Amino acid sequence: MMAAPKRNDAARLEATEARIAALDLPKGGFTAPARAAALARFREMGLPGRRDEYWRWTDPALFAGVEPQLGDAFRVDKPIFEGRDKVRLVFVDGVYDAAASDDPAIAGVEIARLAEADRADIHWAKALYGALEADGQVPVERPFAALNTATATEGLLIRVTGKAARPLHISYRQSATNSDVVLHHVVRLEKGAELTLLETGTPGARSNVVMEVEVGEAARFHHLRPQGRALDRAMITHLFARVAEGALFKSFTLTANGRMTRNEAVIRIAGDGAVAHIAGAALGDGVDGPYHHDDTIFIDHGAEDCESRQVFKKVLKNGAHGIFQGKILVRPGAQRTDGYQISQSLLLDEDSQFLAKPELEIYADDVKCSHGSTTGAIDETALFYLRSRGVPRADAEALLVLSFVADAIAEIENAEFAADIEARIEDWLARRKH
Amino acid sequence: MLEIKNLQVRLEDEDKQILKGVDLTVEAGKVHAIMGPNGSGKSTMSYVLSGRDGYQVTGGSATMDGEDLLEMEPEARAAAGLFLAFQYPVEIPGVGNMTFLRTALNAQRKARGEEEISAGDFLKLVREKAKTLKIDAEMLKRPVNVGFSGGEKKRNEILQMAVLEPKMCILDETDSGLDVDAMKLVADGVNALRDKGRAFLVITHYQRLLDHIKPDVVHIMADGRIIKTGGPELALEVEENGYADILREKA
After folding, report:
1. Mean pLDDT computed over B19-32
2. Are the CB atoms for A283 and A315 separated by under 8 Å?
3. Which of A381, A392, A406 lies nearest to residue B94, judging by beta carbons?
4. B62 beta partners
5. CB contact under 8 A, B104 and A399
6. What does the alpha-carbon distance between residue A139 and residue A135 come to, in Å, rounded to a whole number?
7. SS (H, E, C) chain B
């Protein structure tokens, strides 16, 4: 079912057609029907504009334009998760780099490149490519995700049949200042399978990344996504997931810096007793460059006895902007749903801005759902307490920022990865001390 | 050690004079107690000495070993050896007690130009101090004061004092909210730190804490001034007759 046709004014149609005309559309392959359908979806929806409800606070211009805005890569001093046991696959400007990658072999996991597998006639991913994205267009349209499905030529197809012996690490690197990257990953965890997926860095000057994740019965999926520190980045991501009976889905995102980052997620909780947690910490300081970060999350409870959590924290300074739009839908019959959502911002000065739109829509009568949103400054009493023990002001502030993001970090189950994320936040804070 | 002369302080945000000329000298090795009714300015004095925002010094001075305290940042006062045990210790979620303590100790050492303490030595030091205060390993691991009972919070303050080894310790109503057993633990912790090079200023409403931490000198504060100074017997007098007699005497 598509949303009701609307507002397709001349300007939107024109911009959309111009964007489509400039696309280099892939031909053939098992994804061909899904791509054609996605292109049709995109054409009908059109590019979003500021008057669309979920784009009121984020300007889609950088994602919508035919050409990307140029942007420098971040010079990485030490890569995150370095030294941890994992299999790393590298994409440079959105293209798989075999030479820089580990051997893509993990017991319990089948990994293929979309670029290569697409030539096959039959592939397990055929039923999935674009399917969760298409399903995720209701009730809110996500045109950039449809555009991604229609045009992506790179990405990974990951099928997990057992307990993955090691975490899989997808590492993005940007090389060219004008790279316009589209990546589309499809992940399927079979019954009882387990995978930890690390997704790090900024793919290009402009990036459009879609990940579709089918979490099978009693499967467990952990996703950790430090998005790199590129200052000029324009990056839009969509995470589409369907979580089956008794399965676990957990995703955490760290966003430091970035002119324009929008992370959307649509998580359908489809089987009884499933658990879905999504969390994020965002750090922006306008002194480094413009910062705009947007989390737009939709969690759909369609089964009984399920649990969902949204825990989002933003630390904003010097005119940085943070947006949170999070919704919990509890469908009729999704009894004993336990849903909780919290979005908070810590404003380190008076120039920064946090806008939050929490939504609950509940059609079952026996549920426990709540949401909270707060905006605040550093707690002066806590700051004095730390200073009175001899901790200098800047260090005390940094400790209080770590304290503020702690609830989100606590969503990471693996202690080593959590420590790496925390260290990255500490580094970011240390660079702010004068 | 601590010398306060004619200290006058008002609130920054409202036109209210809290301290109206406090004179007080605390010598090294001594325990001074300050008692007084609510609103007499006891806590304000402890905050002003340790450097909390929100107060304006309108006159007088406060020095520690000759150094002008009022000119220093709170962290510099701490590094110079001043410690305030808070009446309401602050909860800091997500920051481990050990991390907090080590950060504080190393920051002070750095400020004094000393070497940072190694992780091993630090662990040994804290474990030893924690034992006497009956603070277990689990409590050390938890975030600072989060989920601590009133007694645990106060013991944690004394642990910080024991680890940081300040020379001038101010205890702001450390007895508030404590039952007898907890008070005894806290007092034992304080008494263990008594030393000829260290001074204490114990602020309290009640005499009972002073049964456990025996003061050398007792001051009565009222309406922003020290109105009477005496020996330990002064605390007993307050316990028996309340402040009314002393206040009347001065009126």
Report:
1. 95
2. yes
3. A406
4. B4
5. no
6. 9
7. CEEEEEEEEEECCCCCEEEEEEEEEECCCCEEEEECCCCCCHHHHHHHHHCCCCEEEEEEEEEECCEEHHHCCHHHHHHHCEEEECCCCCCEEEEEHHHHHHHHHHHHHHHCCCCCCCHHHHHHHHHHHHHHCCCCHHHHHCEECCCCCHHHHHHHHHHHHHHHCCCEEEEECCCCCCCHHHHHHHHHHHHHHCCCCCEEEEEECCCHHHHHCCCCEEEEEECCEEEEEECCHHHHHHHHHCCHHHHHHHC
CB contact under 8 A, A389 and B78: yes
Helices (H), B52-118: 74-80, 97-111
User: Nearest C-alpha of chain A: how many angstroms from B241?
Assistant: 36
Stated length of chain B: 251
pLDDT tens column, A333-391: 999 999 999 999 999 999 999 999 999 999 999 999 999 999 999 999 999 999 999 99
**For testing contact with chain A, the best of B46, B98, B100, B167 (most A CBs within 10 A):** B100
Report the distance separating Cα A417 and Cα A188, nearest Å.
23
Residue among B81, B112, B105, B83 nearest B174 (CA)? B83
DSSP string, A344-359: EEEESSSS-EEEEEEE
The DSSP code for A69 is: P
* C-alpha span between A408 and A430 (Å, rounded): 20
Write out the H or E segment, with its range, that includes residue A32: helix A32-45
pLDDT beyond 70 at A56: yes
Query: By the CB < 8 Å criterion, does B105 face chain A?
Result: yes
Average pLDDT over residues B89-99: 93
Q: Which residues of A touch B77 (CB under 8 A)?
A: 388
What the block records as the tokens of A158 is 């990951």
Window 135-194 of B: residues touching A by CB (8 A cutoff) are 143, 160, 164
- Nearest-5° Cα angle at B88, B83 to B94: 90
Token reading at A3: 């949303």
Mutation target for B interface from A385, A401, A407, A412: give the one with most B CBs within 10 A: A385
How many interface pairs between A and B have CB atoms less than 8 angstroms apart?
82
Beta-bridge partner residues of A328: A299, A360
> How many Å apart are CA B53 and CA B12, to the nearest integer?
9
Give the C-alpha separation, B99 to B108, whole Å: 14
For residues B91 and B144, the answer to whether their CB atoms sit within 8 Å is yes
Q: Which residues of B touch A385 (CB under 8 A)?
A: 86, 89-90, 92
Residue A193, CA atoms < 13 Å, CB-side half-sphere: 27
- Of the partner residues A384, A393, A395, the one whose CB lies closest to the CB of residue B103: A395
Residue B50 contacts A, CB cutoff 8 Å: yes
Q: Sign of dihedral through CA atoms B209, B4, B88, B138?
A: negative
Q: A1-10, A74-83, A425-434, B7-16: lowest mean pLDDT where?
A: A1-10
Q: Provide the token pair at A371.
A: 């949401």
pTM of the model: 0.92
Strand partners, A314: A282, A345
Amino acid identity, residue B224? G
